[in-house]
Amino acid sequence: MADHMKNHDQGRSRLLRSLAVLGAVAVTSVAFVGGCSDDDQQAPSTGKEPSESATSPTPAERPITTKATVGKVIGKLGAQQKAKLKEDMSAVLDAFFENAYLGEFPRTEFDAAYASFTGGARADAERDTALLSNAEIADQIEQATGTKRRVALDVLAVKGKAQGVTARFTLDFDTTGELERSERVKGYLLLSNEGDDWQVFGYDVLRSVIS
Predict the structure, then answer these.
(1) Please, are residues 164 and 27 in contact by the beta-carbon 8 Å criterion?
(2) What angle do CA 66, 67, 68 make, to 5 degrees?
(3) How far apart are CA 113 and CA 98, in angstroms?
(4) Among the four residues 43, 74, 126, 145, which has the most C-beta atoms within 10 Å?
(5) CA angle, 50 as apex, 49 and 56 as ends, to 5°?
(6) Considering the chain, what percentage of its residues have pLDDT values greater than 70?
(7) Does domain 12-37+63-209 have CATH number 3.10.450.50?
(8) How far is it, in rounded angstroms, from Cα 165 to Cα 84?
(9) In degrees to the nearest 10, what's the CA dihedral of 42, 48, 54, 57?
């Protein structure tokens, strides 16, 4: 069962399905019990960005891709496993972002956004389309373009293999058409490893207009 809270241009939905509560607690507890820090974590920024070469594309020309990092890990996860996990999670998040929020509009079909969701989570997500897709504004926009796509992965690993992930994400995008504005969708997806596939069994999402 999902609940909804809206305040002007903000909306939030929370879903923790009863059958997955134990898994969610195990994974989300990573943020509170120490774990191994990931090699991806960057040194503090000096505030200086690398200079652009004459042949470098301008920021407007660069495609915005999903930047995935591994955060806290309960258990052991090797470098190759971390790299594979980032690749897998980026694929899941990309499919969600692109089919739910980004691309050309108007459109009315958003089912592909939930391809990696379990049956129960998909049913709840489809009831939450105002938050988990652009269905509510789809007839007012012509294009939605991502300007920021980040995901940080907190991981539960068993015997060197990732079994559960809390994927904390931020997606910023700009819309054009009748409705021109910038929006932010952020929150987390809870995922479990089902053989060769990752499935989303829960989510917590906050959406807001940022300009």
Answers:
(1) yes
(2) 110
(3) 7
(4) 74
(5) 125
(6) 70
(7) yes
(8) 13
(9) 50
Percentage of residues in the chain with pLDDT exceeding 90?
67
What is the pLDDT at residue 132?
A: 96
DSSP 36-55: EEPTTPPPPP-S-PPPPPTT
> CA–CA separation, 158 vs 132, rounded Å?
31
Of residues 56, 28, 65, 45, the one with CA closest to residue 146:
65
Q: Where are the domains of the chain?
A: 12-37+63-209
Q: How far is CA 105 from CA 96, 99, 147, 179, in A?
A: 16, 11, 17, 12
How remote is the C-alpha of 114 from its chain's centroid?
A: 12
Peptide bond just before 57 cis, omega within 30 deg: no
Q: How many other C-beta atoms can be found within 10 angstroms of the C-beta atom of residue 112? A: 11
CA distance to 86, 136, 154, 164, per residue, from 25 (Å): 22, 32, 12, 10
pLDDT tens for each residue of 170-183: 999 999 999 999 99
